[in-house]
UniProtKB/TrEMBL annotation:
Homodimer. One of its GO terms (biological process) is response to heat. Binds 2 Zn(2+) ions per monomer. It comes from the Bacteria. InterPro entries: DnaJ, DnaJ_C, DnaJ_domain, DnaJ_domain_CS, HSP40/DnaJ_pept-bd, HSP_DnaJ_Cys-rich_dom, HSP_DnaJ_Cys-rich_dom_sf, J_dom_sf. Residues 3-68 form the J domain. It is found in: Cytoplasm. It comes from Peptoniphilus harei ACS-146-V-Sch2b. Zn(2+) 2 binds at residues 165, 168, 191, 194. Its cofactor is Zn(2+). This is Chaperone protein DnaJ. Residues 135-217 form the CR-type domain. PROSITE patterns: DNAJ_1 (PS00636), DNAJ_2 (PS50076), ZF_CR (PS51188). Transmembrane segments: none annotated.
Length: 376
């Protein structure tokens, strides 16, 4: 059974204001408009919206706390003056979140022969830094359920028969009634003798144990597009487990994780790196070599460049997913390398340079004058 408090990431004693804040945060995170094409996010958004709709209403929350989610799905009739009239409207409001009336959805959800989509599957794929940037084909292995080749999904041995369940008389459901402080509570659940099918198989299939499907490891080749990053999800429609009663197969969701690189750092579609230059290059200016994602280019550093200066190469970043012609930028920061050891000749030249740097001497004097005023 789903825990609505865990879904909304709150404690059971949460206040309405705390509940609202948590819901708004999660709704923004998983909203379909902010996650276009992400079916996992869409399903999560519907789940948290339903949980909030229940817990934000005092009456619904009280029923959920006592009876769980099943209490919300059942029929509740007034008894005497219990004061809980209009429960049908409350349930209708809940189901209207997803469209359609409660009665229609209730009947649809309990049809034993309704087509059911097969379960989805998740696969985690780790990519190297440049595989994620330029795209790659990967082979994945995933366990899914496929139709049993022996019984062809009938769930029974070839030649055997099935008959109507005597417990539920073919409805696939059983009902029970319970008197509660809120009135008479009627609960409808799947029949345990036939597992909700309304039929009992005389001789279940020996190959699949009467399930109509078997688990096998499925191998698929997945084309990873250019520009993916950690957290991206690739959907493989109808490649998951087989559905029931003619329902479509489930999906496979490929979750991407990308390894970091020793030289390049990625932020979104932009690339960052540090490039060392000499003191003389910084002072005099120089043409330096800058590595990009695809080649090495020449770049003119202007004279008087200070350490930490950042330069930009437009369009040399990561391609946008499914927009190969649109790319981010590359930013490189220059770091002036100060040698720890110098030769006698280099030392002599540096001493001479120090004596002929009026700009440096002037800045030093200005700084000392400011210190003197500070402590006077």
């Amino acid at each position: 059974m789903r825990n609505f408090y865990e879904i909304l990431e709150v404690e059971k004693n949460v206040t309405k204001e705390e509940l609202k804040r948590s819901y708004k945060k999660l709704a923004k995170k998983y909203h379909p408009d902010l996650n276009p094409g992400d079916e996992v996010a869409e399903a999560k958004f519907k789940e948290i919206s339903y949980a909030y709709e229940v817990l934000a209403d005092d009456e619904k929350r009280q029923i959920y706390d006592v009876y769980g989610e099943e209490g919300l799905k059942g029929n509740m009739g007034g008894s005497g003056g219990s004061g809980f009239g209009g429960f049908s409207d409350i349930f209708d409001d809940i189901f209207d979140i997803f469209g359609g009336s409660r009665s229609n959805r209730y009947e649809y959800a309990n049809r034993k022969d309704m087509p059911k989509k097969g379960p989805d599957a998740r696969v985690d794929v780790t990519l190297d830094f440049f595989e994620a940037i330029f795209g790659v084909e990967k082979e994945i292995s995933v366990k899914v359920r496929e139709e049993c080749s022996h019984c062809h999904g009938s769930k029974m041995e070839p030649g055997s028969e099935k008959h109507t369940c005597e417990t539920c008389h073919g409805s696939g459901q059983v009902t029970s009634e319970q008197n509660t402080p809120f009135g008479r509570f009627v609960r409808t659940s799947a029949c345990e003798d036939c597992n909700g099918t309304g039929e009992v198989i005389e001789e279940p299939c020996k190959e699949c144990g009467g399930r109509g499907s078997k688990v096998r490891t499925k191998k698929l080749k997945v084309n990873i597009p250019k520009g993916v990053d950690t957290g991206n999800i690739i959907s493989l429609r109808n490649q998951g487990s087989v559905g029931e009663n003619g329902g479509e197969n489930g999906d496979i969701f490929v979750y991407i994780r990308v390894r970091s690189d020793a030289v390049f750092k990625r932020e979104g579609n932009d690339i960052y790196l540090n490039i060392p230059i000499s003191y003389s290059d910084a002072v005099l200016g120089a043409k330096i070599k800058v590595p990009t994602l695809e080649k090495i280019v020449d770049y003119d550093i202007p004279k008087g460049t200070t350490g930490g200066t950042v330069f930009r190469l437009k369009g040399e970043g990561v391609p946008y997913v499914n927009r190969d012609k649109q790319r981010g930028d590359l930013f490189f920061k220059v770091e002036i390398i100060i040698p720890k050891k110098v030769s006698d000749e280099q030392r002599k030249l540096l001493e001479e340079l120090r004596e002929t740097e009026p700009e440096v001497a002037e800045n030093k004097k200005s700084f000392l004058d400011k210190l003197k005023k500070l402590f006077d």
